[in-house]
Design brief:
11 helices, Elongation Factor Tu (Ef-tu), domain 3, alpha/beta, 2 domains
Length: 320
């Protein structure tokens, strides 16, 4: 269940254990937090709830939106459901919200609205005005109000922690394998299919296009993808960037193999399975089509070899 704000919390969701954070990407480190959340909630026989914030605080304080977001609210909710959590609460984050004192945050949201039995946070979690709400502050507040607090260390991957920043950096380089490994599932984007310039159709590769925000950070290139439309999964090859046509900002264009039909206006989710190549300019449209033919062959090979990275990957249904 997704709740937008805490104005009308069902009685059945009160008294639960709550994990608090931004959780952009819901990567393996976040999943460790959610696994502990499930364990503690199961032990107490209460709901397991995620409390998160939208938009990302960095966007609120930036002169203009600048964050390369890995998961918007809908995607976070989809992932929370796939992980078996009972609810995700999306709190609207504003400048006014950022000025709430840490004591008031606890009293209003955790105690009055949610009546929490326990709280789970990561080692780098802060909240409230001037970021005064540290894990130590939260433990003291829990002792006062009667709820437990669990703080988890950051998850290591090699010599570095698993982090949303590392996932973004990998995607900026087109390193889909590293990004997906850090996430523990194949990263996906979601959007409504829009009508494009029809160039793909003229070249024999009709595409389903999703418009992307200007701050999108994915490396331009060609990707092996698996797309979900409704309950149907389609293999395909996707292109981000149009160096031969100068479109800016470009859409994310997915050609679905062995598919014919009209997808305009429909919601589509597209998972990146592998990176085929970077973008390139070609001397002629014939050379471009030859490259697209080779891209399709390589994408089919990647898709045939794809395996789930975790139970979450299988639950999302893109790879199973």
């Amino acid at each position: 269940m997704r709740l937008d704000g805490l104005n009308h919390v069902p009685a059945a969701l009160k008294g639960g254990v709550v994990a608090i954070g931004n959780f952009d990407g819901v990567h393996r480190g976040h999943q460790a937090v959610f696994e502990r959340l499930r364990q503690e909630a199961r032990t107490l026989g209460v709901p397991a709830i995620v409390l998160t914030f939208e938009p990302h605080p960095r966007d609120v304080f930036a002169p203009q939106p600048m964050m390369f977001r890995l998961t918007e609210a809908d995607a976070k909710a989809r992932l929370a459901q796939a992980l078996g959590l009972d609810a995700i609460v999306v709190m609207p984050f504003t400048r006014d919200f950022s000025q709430i004192e840490a004591e008031d945050f606890v009293a209003r949201f955790l105690v009055a609205d949610l009546a929490v039995a326990g709280v789970i946070v990561g080692a780098d979690f802060h909240f409230g005005r001037a970021r005064r709400g540290t894990p130590d502050f939260l433990r003291a507040a829990g002792a006062q109000h009667g709820f437990g607090v669990t703080q988890l260390d950051l998850l290591d991957d090699g010599d570095e922690h698993v982090s949303s920043s590392r996932v973004r950096d990998a995607l900026r380089q087109g390193d889909v394998d590293t990004a997906n490994r850090l996430l523990g599932y194949h990263w996906f984007i979601e959007g409504v299919v829009e009508q494009g310039d029809q160039r793909g159709r003229e070249l024999g590769y009709p595409t389903a296009n999703i418009a992307l925000p200007a701050q999108w950070g994915l490396a331009q290139g060609v990707y092996a993808v698996r797309a979900r439309v409704g309950e149907t999964i389609h293999d395909g090859v996707a292109s981000f960037g149009k160096p031969m046509f100068g479109d800016a900002p470009p859409p994310f264009e997915s050609h679905l193999f062995d598919f014919s039909g009209d997808l305009y206006g429909q919601s589509m989710a597209v998972a990146l399975i592998g990176h085929v190549r970077g973008q390139a300019r070609f001397g002629s449209l014939a050379d471009l089509v030859t490259a697209m033919d080779a891209d399709s062959v390589r994408a089919r090979q990647m898709l045939a070899a794809a395996r789930p990275l975790s139970g979450l990957d299988a639950a999302l249904g893109f790879v199973g």
